[in-house]
Protein 1
Amino acid sequence: MTTIEFKGVTKTFNNGFRAIQRTDLTINPGEFTVILGSSGAGKSTLLRMVNGLETPSQGEIFIDQRKLTPQNLRHIRAKVGMIFQQFNLVNRLNVMTNVLIGRSYYRRWWESLFYLFTKQDYKLAHWALERVELTDKVWQRASNLSGGQQQRVAIARVLAQKPQIIIADEPVASLDPATSLEILGLLSKICKEDGVTVLASLHQVNLAMQFADRIIGIKQGKVIFDDQPVNLLNNS
Ligand code: ADP
Ligand code: ADP
């Protein structure tokens, strides 16, 4: 199983704003780790650096003891799947095609439309849709699904890559409370049963307490808490 390591990571944007300040972190394999913080704390910046959507200004990130560089980004992205607050599906395409796009993660989404998917790609896509319990929606357009169903398609798209790590950037921020529980429960199940490391950002303490093995609290780009959920309320 795969570790994520941040060594002295700082992210300063081009306007001079420092969103992440000199951070050292090791994310343990097989755990469900929640990055907890309010809006603007730097959660998204932190997570986006793990699969190369942002690059550190200083410091280094290692995935599985391998330094993340522009040269091995494709290799890293094969291991690291990401889901987002807004699901990021291709709305006019059906569910199956959206999931198949996960099989061509190393191409741009439109390039994948020219790519002939193999039998194995379809097999994995079907397996992934079974895993998220959406086999009855395979030929529906993504835009016809509810928010919770769309997030499940996004999870299936990532699962079809057979990832070792899932990065989830505020995966339930667009969903109602009941659906939020359902989606976090699904991510937790994938973590425990399939041994996938899950690193998710949240802003709700109660959800973090309920699902995380470990909570990393961040504020203004700095880690201010790092412990098991039970110790969060004792922390002043
Ligand atoms: P860069 O990251 O190279 O600065 P972007 O295209 O991401 O380029 O952003 C361009 C500029 O827009 C940034 O320098 C910043 O001033 C502003 N900006 C973009 N996104 C945000 C944001 N989320 N919060 C504040 N400012 C932002
Ligand atoms: P969170 O996910 O915790 O809401 P973010 O990582 O999105 O926080 O943002 C952290 C801070 O960095 C915010 O103040 C945001 O405005 C700023 N920021 C994000 N992207 C950019 C950018 N491209 N340029 C300048 N500032 C940015």
Note: Residues 13, 15, 17, 19, 37, 39-45 surround adenosine-5'-diphosphate (ligand 2) (CB under 6 Å).
Protein 2
Amino acid sequence: MSENPAIDNLLHETRSFPPPEELAANANLKADAYDEADADYEAWWAKQGERLTWDTEPTQTLDWSNAPFAKWYSGGKLNAAYNAVDRHVEAGKGDKVAYYFEGEPGDTREITYSDLKDEISRGANALTELGVKAGDTVAIYMPMIPETIFAMLSCARIGAVHMVVFGGFAADSLATRINDCGAKVVITADGGYRRGKPAGLKDTVDAALEKTPDVHSVLVVRRTGQDTPMTDGRDRWWDEFVDGQSAEHTPEAFDAEHPLYIMYTSGTTGKPKGILHTTAGYLVGCSYTQWALFDLKDDDIYWTAADVGWVTGHSYIVYGPLVNGATSVLYEGTPDTPHQGRWWEIIDKYKVSLLYCAPTVIRMFMKWGEEIPAKYDLSTLRVMGSVGEPINPEAYVWYRRVIGHDNAPVVDTWWQTETGSVMISPLPGVTAAKPGSAMRPIPGISADVVDERGESVPNGSGGYLVVTKPWPSMLRTIWGDDDRYVDTYWSRFDGKYFAGDGAKKDEDGDIWLLGRVDDVMNVSGHRMSTTEIESALVSHPKVAEAAVVGASDETTGQAVVAFVILRGGAEDDGDATVQELRNHVAREISPIAKPRQVMVVPELPKTRSGKIMRRLLQDIAEKRDIGDVTTLADSTVMDQIQKKLTGGA
Ligand code: WTA
């Protein structure tokens, strides 16, 4: 199914890297884990359920009687925050550091498990005073600071459902999400540090709240100290309101299937989907995978260099590491502030042993040059992960050689917001990993590559990635839209979860991910919907019509390229219009959605039924010869577009 020469190239990759001997000998998971899980996958997950401390033990591991609506660990009762924090304190690990926080300006904090218990107990009492009850939703819009984690766990402690919105999203995106999930309380900060400067967040919340009639309370963490107007009766400073609360709070046990959080992600339509994760299965999924795929040991220093506002942050900065009682690094800022060695300086300083990040940032480091990491001691690194997009073999090999001193295994982990935790990945102590391949479903997970009819393809062939059995950390539904949940994920192939990714099995049966097969783009590991950006463009008074494609890009994987038709009478003043439209998208959605290019064109290529042929636009964006145009309603359109773009019209 690949029309892309780069992908064919990829499949000729022949290198593979077996695990270092010592790691293999002491690995948390050994090769027999696959057999054990295959023999009885429910028994496997029942055993993984023992990672949690239950108030009431579950009576049934999986209830799939109402498929595709799963219930895991039925009958069980537990508290997520207790599992993440209190039980470690009770076990005598109160003084263990949960987070080494490193602020972008260089300020640092050490937060122990005892500190964390006090903070989230106060937070739970504060939310209760604001009237928040179990089952209510709370929106969180924060920078990467410890209070973001306190806020999430405070919600979990009282059974409230948190809905974190990445701090880069614009007011409109925030408002849509708040309204969709019905949040009445918002937790935010005055601002956060980004590239050496304070960047406001509360001002965005104020703008969003003009469109959210139900929000009655806003808690504001002081981070930057910037000027922050407060609305009387609605807004409260976190340090004044929360810090004064009692640090005593008894966590209540909730049902295993009690909702834990909602996270919005882009789908194929303009409307973002509220992915719902519930308590026990989700906690099992992320703690098991962090332990297995990073070979987590008690003295490891673990760092997921992602934002808490994305699922990677939820699962591998917050819940996975905390349920495992691990020590993590939490870094607020960008990799090049104040200098391009900042990450390596952090690894050197805290002796980080496990690192998890995205290919896009690795490609950026490659461009900056290997002499930068060479200045630091990275010898503590044991296992390194990659997530969010396919990692090209060159980036993989560079990561392993330059950062991992040619010894630390790289685990290329495939998963999604919907899957809650990693699904396909090498095991660091078992797999001889091939650069560019996520290899095999991990023990307990069953996935396959199928053709159009849903039949498993033979080795050496490509098709669609599916998950063939339910798993504990799977999404339970799309918030408020069960039909869309069934349609999107479970209707394409009978009884199988359709991931939306293309994939190929090589001759050994190992899996290579080939990117999305729907109208979803992946820019720097961020999921973006073409339709959502098109809607944003069309909301600009100058634009009549827009089509957006993801074009391959050396650094960001894909980049947003937009084609627009201006309205009759709208003036096309070249660069100024282009800049205006790019900024408009950044304002409407987020700077991460800002198109790399906007091309003003006279027409868009459409089929006779009026569907825009994005494939042809992609050819232009990627500077290829134009493919087959015979299905176009007007076959001269592509000529008109090219003439315009080369300055001929
Ligand atoms: C892509 C991020 C190839 C894929 C955790 C998926 C990957 C989407 C990989 C989910 C990988 C994630 N190799 N592609 N190792 N990991 N993807 O929801 O297209 O932000 O469907 O979750 O990212 O993105 P999401």
Note: The first strand starts at residue 60 and ends at 63.
